[in-house]
Design brief:
By secondary structure, the chain is an alpha+beta fold. It contains 13 helices and 5 strands. The protein has a 5-stranded mixed sheet with strand order 1-2-5-3-4. Strand 3, helix 3 and strand 4 form a beta-alpha-beta unit. The longest helix is centred in the first third of the chain and has 20 residues. The relative contact order is 0.11. The mean pLDDT is 86.
Amino acid sequence: EGIKNWARFLRLTTNAWTLELTSIGDHLRCRYQIPDHFGPRAQYVDMIVGYGLSRLRLMTRDPDLTYRAEFTHPPPNNMAEFNKLLGDDIAFGCEFDRQFIPNSCLKLQPPNHEPHLKKIVEDSALRALSKLDDQHDDVRQISDQISKCLKSGDASLEAVARELAMSKRTLQRVLEREGTSYRKLTEDVRKSLAERYLVEEDLQISQIAYLLGYSEISAFSRAVKIWFGVPPKALKMQKGKA
């Protein structure tokens, strides 16, 4: 129930990612869905997976509890910390970011559970969820489409609006309600993707510039220097230190 409520009420705390739960045989599969432009994704996914396991260890009072974890990103240079926290049943370069929790673990009851407190917190969360404005989901959808259009070579307002079956004015109004603009959102997406590609991916700087819609490497380099205070090569060197 605790894990289901985590997925159920996640939107109250973040609109950056979602959690999908599916029963698979004798396991509960937890799939973390994080937008492509959210970066660096690897660090974020690692944090989420580690947090989930630490909470289960706390609830079950089993400090040695481990279960299978799968990551889309490549393995780090130093596996010691991963093995120390998650055990040896870890895979990298997978199709999805997910964990498989044994049903036997799910049947355990937290030693200090408080049914009445649980109901109070749950009812409060339900009221908050009912009031939550879904406009944030619209912005996330637009961000995702900008990311896709950047890769295809045309991330203009017209192209993104067309792919989302919106008029340009409707798209602009959605962003205005959220206190942003199409230009600002596009820059935010570019910045997130640039950080992810430079730190996590084995891509040439020229390839990254192309994927982000820059016709010249010099323009991309200037943008990176403004965003992060260092040129692309310096940021890319962080990959070897991860």
